[in-house]
Amino acid sequence: MKQCYAILAFILAWQINAFAQNPAGAPPGGAPRGNMPKGAGAPQIGRIYGKLIDATTKQPVEYASVAILRQRDSSLVTGMLTKSNGDFNFENMPFGPLLVRINFMGYKTIFKKVTVAPQAMDQDLGNIRIEPNSKTLNAVEVTGQKSAFQMGIDKKVFNVDRNLTSVGGTATDILKNVPAVNVDIDGNVKVRNASPTIFVDGKPSTLTLDQIPADAIESVELITNPSAKYDAEGMSGILNIVLKKNKKAGINGMIQGGIATGEKYNASGNINVRQDKLNVFANYSLNANRNWGNGTTNTQFFDQKGDISSFQDQYSDQVSRGKFQFGRFGLDYYLDNRNTLSISQNIVGGSFKNYEDLKTVSSDATHAPTATSLRNSVSEFGFNNYTTQVGWKHLFAKPNKEWTADFSWNKSNNHRDGNYNTDFTTVSGQDRPSTLQYQNTKGSSTFSTLQTDFVNPIGKNGKFETGLKATYRDYSSNYSVFDHDAAKGIDTFNTRLSNDYKYNEQVYAGYVNYSNTAGNFGYQLGLRAEQYVYAGESAGVKYKPTRAVPGLFPSVYLSQKLKNEQELQLNYSRRVNRPNFFQLIPYRDFTDPYNQREGNPNLKPEYTNSLEFSYAKTWKNHNFLASIYFRNTNNLISTYTEPIAGDTMLTRFVNANRNNSYGAELTVKNQVIKGWDITTNVNLFQTDLTIDNDKEKATNSGFSWLAKINSEVKLPWGLTFQQNFQYQADAIALPAGGGRGGGGGGGGFMMIPTSSQGKVKGFNTLDLAIKKDFLKSKALSVTLTWQDVYDSRRFGMDLATSSYSQLAYRKRESEILRLNVSYRFGKFDSQIFKRKNTKADNNMGDMQSF
């Protein structure tokens, strides 16, 4: 452990020292800023468009000559005449600085500078006003380029293509390597030791992280303190998973496949076709795997004097086999230069089979066994998920002014069947009658959102934003348990364990945001209103809908730019985390009879006030971002575990009086030398938790820290080597949000209660990957990944109260060696599907005289 501290301290000190020295060299990526490839060899996938109008009459100008020239030598790239409505549109534009020249008889000639770059391929020149009888304009407009790696104060965007260690995996593997994000053994996500809201393509989704293949993800956006524009749900901000969809002209795509130790396979492919007004894309992924897991739980029970009264030890071994498929297709239809219609469809399905042996040994105060049980379970789980999204985007002639409308509809179904056979042995070694249960669960969910947003620039730097959003979710589940009588050969319906429940929730929201600058000082003020309506039913008992009282969620952003690429920012926002149905229903889950769970219909929403102060500094080859944050939560939704009968534990959801978390986060990105990048993220935080109500009185507090280090080195012979190291210290146990599990699913792996009374044990893990590119175009790549090199990733929980203490560990297969092969193909040509057009060729010939 001391070695981990020493290594981390050395790397941080070395990187900060590198900043002070500020070595000269090329910026990340190898090429100097603003120096894009030139000439015929540069990729030709850009788009330049606009509309020409008469400055006096405000009418469209038809048949005006528009030419695209190279800035370096004014050589002609292409040209056209404006249409009857004044529109012009150029596809297949090369990367680099270009010059747009517009002239028409009787009018002055206009020149506009533009730059086509990978992050700025579409250049909208807006409504261009051409004036009669005047000299050539001297004013020009320049479009800049964005860095491929964006690390801002309000949002961090991580490019998944750079993450070699997650190739062939799932979204869980992606997020494990994202700075500031922690993922536990069950896929629960924490940011700064609290649960964020997870979006897919900017919208809520019912997909779990393990149902999204890594190969389908383009980037991950982390917004730690969202403005009023975003949903108020989520204690620690928003994680947005952006799926792949590009808009390159012509046809392009990729196919890949992989194999890993332990019977794991993956294959995927994606394709994109764009011509004229239509952009079509599709991707498909298949993942099949086998995973093993094991766990131990050791519990000591105390009498009223504080002496040990008994022990309970549990041992679990599991194997899971399964496969799932992910498909996505859609299109973008460009009605004209400023109106785009987008449609996409996701289809996901899978099936899994789990086997588990759970042995429980009860013993007296001397550790002499008093009873033993062995439960063998086999469960099958299947699901399908469909998501349809329709979006419309309108761009106004005024730069950055736009209006969007989006609709998303999601439908999912799942089923689980399980057989549970338990053998009992008494203290004398005699066998007691075995019990056999059959469990069946069927569930369905409908989740839809409708939203519209409007952005209008005001003045030189001002911006007004407003929008409306409606979210609707309907969920139902039928959980049936049957007891089998082997002697009589009959099955009896168990009313005590079975349950049938459903719920409906609706959220209606609206927001306004205004931002502006005064010199180097910037500000943004926002207010969001959300009205939440909930109604549920369990075992025939209906729960009344919540009162339709809107909640107000303000946000304030203040920023000050300093000299030498420095910036300060102070942010405040108010957020909410509402209890979900699984936390509310008073149903008790007996899946593990010694560790039971139960909801609480009296739970209240938790409200969080977040304050964050940040400092950002950019050097030529380095980025540094430091944040100090404070988070106060009232009515924190937590869990409380207590013994209820002998060696049986019950975990219930409760509202804590308050939870205060504060800490500091440092993110450092270095280019050590050309071809070697290191990104380091360190989060240090303190958590203070208080529970004080009629049934429970408890406090829990402690300091913890998390560190992630990513190193990527470009080697000769087309090799890239990547290392990802993570260390998590012991931390206060706060339950993950999102409503995963619960409600009587039955089966699966041994449960370890997550309680606010305990601490999560620390761990460290190291992932390695190396990639080799082949062919002149580097279109063929082979990646070898070694995950969790030391096989050290496991989940531990340490609970301690006056009536019991418990130490539990769970581990799933994490040391995995994976080989993946990918091949990229494509032709960046907007004319690839067109026949030869003589008229167009003649028009191009006429352009040579411009």
From TrEMBL:
Ranges in coiled-coil conformation: none
Residue intervals of the Outer membrane protein beta-barrel domain: 394-823
Superkingdom of this protein's organism: Bacteria
GO cellular component: cell outer membrane
Keywords for this protein: Cell outer membrane, Membrane, Receptor, Signal
InterPro entries assigned to the protein according to its UniProt record, in alphabetical order: Beta-barrel_TonB_sf, CarboxyPept-like_regulatory, OMP_b-brl_3, Plug_dom, Plug_dom_sf
Segments forming domain TonB-dependent receptor plug: 170-238
Keyword Chloroplast: no
Secretion signal span: 1-20
UniProt name for this protein: Outer membrane receptor protein involved in Fe transport
